[in-house]
Amino acid sequence: MKSSRPGPGEALLITANRLLDGRIVWRDHSGKWREDIRQATPFTFEEAESALETAEKQAQQEGVVGIYDVLVRTGSVPQPVTMREHVRAFGPTVNPDFAYVAASSLPVSSTAPQGTQS
């Protein structure tokens, strides 16, 4: 996949799918894969090329597949430019009740299924 050059106020993020559970993950500054897009490291076009190469070499040992870069608008929460990537990052757009929330951003009591909290 050919990368898009970020314009003003844009950057590239590195994304993949985790093999263990199929979750969409984002590469952070330390090279770890995170479920939350807010933890992803923004790259310039030139930096993304090197970061992709490194991520692809480490993919098997890190348990990820389908690594590529995503063009985003920068801000406190990166906003993917395409609808496809927006849905991958934040969940369905049909109803807010179905939006994806990274497990790491939920309070402990919110992670239990309804009816099972004490």
Describe this structure as you would to a colleague.
The protein has two helices and five strands. The radius of gyration is 15 Å and the shape is globular. The chain has a five-stranded antiparallel sheet with strand order 3-2-1-4-5. A hairpin with a 5-residue loop joins strand 4 and strand 5. By secondary structure, it is of the alpha+beta class. It is 22% helix and 23% strand. It has one domain.
Q: Please state the overall shape, judged from the principal axes of the Cα atoms.
A: globular
The rounded distance between the terminal residues' Cα atoms is 48 Å
The beta-strand count equals: 5
Mean pLDDT: 86
Low-confidence stretches: 108-118
Work out the count of structural domains. 1
What composes the largest sheet?
Answer: 5 strands, antiparallel
> Treating each run of at least 4 consecutive H or I residues as one helix, how many helices?
2
Estimate what percentage of residues fall within beta strands. Answer: 15-25%
Q: Helix proportion of residues, in percent?
A: 10-25%
How do the strands line up in the largest sheet?
3-2-1-4-5
How many whole angstroms does the radius of gyration measure? Answer: 15 Å
Order of helices and strands: EEEHEEH
Secondary-structure content class = alpha+beta
Topology:
Blueprint (H helix, E strand, L loop, with lengths): L9 E9 L5 E4 L5 E2 L10 H18 L1 E10 L5 E2 L2 H8 L28
Antiparallel strand pairs: 1-2, 1-4, 2-3, 4-5
In short:
The protein is 22% helix and 23% strand.
